Amino acid sequence: MTSHRSDLGRDLARIAVFAALIVVLGTVTVPLPGGVPLTAQTLGVMLAGMVLGPRLAPMAVLLVLVLAAIGLPVLAGGRGGLGVFVGPTAGYLIGWIAGAIVIGVIARGGRITWWRTALGAVVGGILVVYLFGIPVQALVLGVELAPTALSSLVFLPGDLLKAAAATVLTLALLRAYPPAFGRRPALGAPARAV
User: Fold this and answer.
1) Cα dist. 49→27, 36, 101 in Å?
2) Average pLDDT of every residue of the chain
3) Cα diameter, the chain
4) Nearest to 114 by CA among 46, 180, 188
């Protein structure tokens, strides 16, 4: 019973740490036309997916979204409140949940390697988030889907840099402090080559 409580406490602490990281990374913001700012918060979502895995990472994201829903200024640019869930960024926010799950499934689906973490970041942290975000942004702004998708390409170089940074940081954390990954991280030999 004590082991179960200690595991639960450890998991809750890890969820809180990554929720806080996502919030802190929201302070790095560049406003862009179209209502969706350039932010570092997706780096936090990528890291959560890679380190926490598909079960705990969405809980960290949900914690941030619940805090935003009750009005705390935890999103990019100090935004919060229910209005963010009907604005142009709403799809991206929901996409973070699905993206964190996909990142975790790919990155933690076997041995933690550089290619698995990079693939998880690109597929879950970029593609999945865009698949949720772009249609909602188009709907809210009353713009056709194709032009919205085209305008969203402005985010791609920054998102690719965040995916690369998340990969490097994940592998460095794995090497320096494996307990951050939970009870049984699957260590891969290629993880040593950063």
Assistant:
1) 20, 22, 6
2) 90
3) 56
4) 188
- Both tokens of residue 45? 């979502």
Instruction: Output the six-digit token pair for 46.
Output: 């990528």
Structure tokens at 158: 């920054």
pLDDT at 1 over 70: no
The CATH class given to the 9-183 domain equals: mainly alpha
Q: Are strands 29-30 and 38-39 parallel, antiparallel or unpaired?
A: antiparallel
Dist CA 192 CA 194 (whole Å): 6
Residue 36 pLDDT: 65
Residue 48 near residue 57, CB atoms below 8 Å: yes
Q: Measure the N-to-C terminal CA separation of the chain; round to a whole number of Å.
A: 39
- For residue 166, what are its two tokens? 């998340």
pLDDT digits (tens, 9 = 90+) for 177-190: 999 998 654 555 44
- Tell how far CA 123 is from the center of its chain: 12
Residue 189's contacts (CB-CB under 8 Å, 6 or more residues apart) are 111
Which ranges of 32-84 would DSSP assign to H, the alpha helix?
A: 41-69
Contact 69, 27 (CB under 8 A): no
Tracing tokens 């960290």 back to the chain, one arrives at 60
Tell me the whole-structure pTM to 2 decimals.
0.89
